[in-house]
Amino acid sequence: MSHGLQFQLSYTFSKDLATDLASTTGANGGNGLVGDQTNFLRRYGPDNFNRPHRFVASYLYQLPGPQNLSSAWGRLAGGWAVSGVSIFQSGHQLSITTSSPFNAFGMAQDFAQLAAGCTQTVTAGSLEQNLNNYFNKSCFTSLPKIGPDPFTTGFGNSSVGMVRGPGQINTDLAIIKKIAVRWPVEAANVEFRTEFFNVFNHPQFADPDTSFSSATFGKIQTTAINPRVMQFALKYSF
After folding, report:
1. Which of 32, 115, 131, 202 is geometrically suited to a Cys-Cys bond with 141, CB 3.0 to 4.6 A?
2. Structural domain boundaries of the chain?
3. Angle 171-177-178 (CA atoms, 0-180°, nearest 5)?
């Protein structure tokens, strides 16, 4: 604490690699096998829960005020403080998958097939402009056919963790007012708090649908954090 200000900053760089999606976080070892069951190197890559960069700042600032908090002026102008937590984090590393009912090797889920000539899988423009088209859908196509049967398919060629989901920026803030009451002990006080969650009402979007087989492929349909929420609290300490 210095001049009424204290803060803590933390930065995390993380990298989690796995042979199967969600195998390090999912219940009972993940979401099931995706892709070539005989080639673990083909399935090896970033797990889909990982956020490579995360920065967190927490802070508290006690505003300057009268020294005597028991006086009328002290009760009015003193005891004010502002505190908060701000989080900045990159998006998940996502894999594009597809259902594979006619896979020649019996795998129901596979990585999607990249279309020839695709150079940009994520659409240009702001996130808000691309909520219904987060992915460049023309970059993906049907799985390749193999053998004499016109329905039998092989494995897709897209890589693990090839696209990045939406990042997140969020700030929670509290305005605090302490009033000295000096009863039943000298240090007794009443604290009133006004708390704002997502104080700037910044949209926090969830990941898009990453299944090429889905009717909502490439669409972001939900938010990950609520819009601004405000609450009040009153605490008596003695």
Report:
1. 115
2. 5-66+92-170+201-231
3. 135
